[in-house]
TrEMBL record:
It comes from Paraprevotella clara YIT 11840. Residues 20-244 form the Ion transport domain. GO terms for biological process: action potential. This is Transporter, cation channel family protein. It is found in: Membrane. The keyword Ribonucleoprotein does not apply. Gene3D superfamilies: 1.10.287.70, Voltage-gated potassium channels. Chain C.
Length: 255
């Protein structure tokens, strides 16, 4: 009877967490807190910074309540584990860590009040952007797409990393004597390789020798081709998911 009573409590809390009004309320405070942090960085918002910070602390209180409720409802999310193990698993999961980061400002202002730690607490909201992943269908769709082409992306990124390493080291030995300040070490060669490979071309580091310019041209061409590979993979996965979604909607309409 005691176990069943607790299971009903877990299910009740989990249902409340999944309801639209709760999700939209938390989403409102997530977006509002991020917007407040952005606005507080402008000089023109100086007269309103107290209100902006107050909203952030209110948002942290809401996130603290959400965090506690998710700890309570963790056994419903991880049914294959016992209650204490499911909570432990949630605490150290990706979402669990992000939820904890979001409540840090509330805890710090409660413990330290008017100290430098209160102002440093706002930095925690940088990571709070990741809370949008749970409440945004767009982010969830991106996550599904990346999961579908995970192996292919790892292969493409590995090939890019090998090419960057080879190019950066080779360019350092080619250009070091001609311009020792621009290519003072292999790290500068890596920076040049990244900028050239991504076709950004800041112009702060560039080859001056004939052999270096030839290598730079080759890297630019290869970079365009290599960047097109993951773009094509992700686009193809997106199209597959969209077609699958449309097919399911058509089947539901027919039924």
């Amino acid at each position: 009877m005691f176990v069943l009573r607790h299971e009903k409590l877990y299910l009740t809390v989990h249902r409340q967490l999944m309801k639209k009004w709760f999700r939209y309320t938390v989403l409102f405070f997530i977006v509002g807190a991020i917007f407040s942090v952005i606005c507080s960085s402008f000089e023109s918002s100086a007269p309103y910074r107290l209100q902006l910070y107050s909203f952030c602390y209110l948002a942290s209180f809401v996130f603290t309540v959400e965090y506690v409720l998710r700890i309570i409802a963790a056994p419903v999310q991880y049914r294959q584990y016992r209650a204490w193990r499911s909570r432990f698993r949630y605490l150290f999961s990706f979402y669990g860590l992000i939820d904890f980061v979001a409540v840090i400002p509330f805890l710090i202002i409660y413990l330290y009040r008017e100290t430098i730690f209160v102002h440093l607490a706002v930095l925690a909201y940088i990571l709070m952007i990741f809370k949008l992943i749970r409440y945004s269908r767009s982010f969830q769709l991106i996550g599904r797409v990346l999961q579908m082409v995970k192996d292919e992306l790892i292969t493409a990124c590995t090939a890019c990393g090998i090419l960057l390493g080879f190019s950066g080291i080779l360019m350092y030995y080619i250009e070091h004597e001609a311009q020792p300040e621009a290519f003072a070490n292999i790290g500068d060669g890596f920076w040049w390789a990244v900028v050239t490979f991504t076709t950004v071309g800041y112009g702060d580091v560039y080859p001056v020798t004939a052999l270096g310019r030839l290598l730079s041209g080759v890297i630019c061409m290869v970079g365009i081709a290599m960047i097109a590979i993951p773009t094509g993979l992700i686009s193809s996965a997106f199209m597959s998911l969209i077609q699958e979604k449309k097919r399911k909607e058509e089947e539901e309409h027919k039924n």
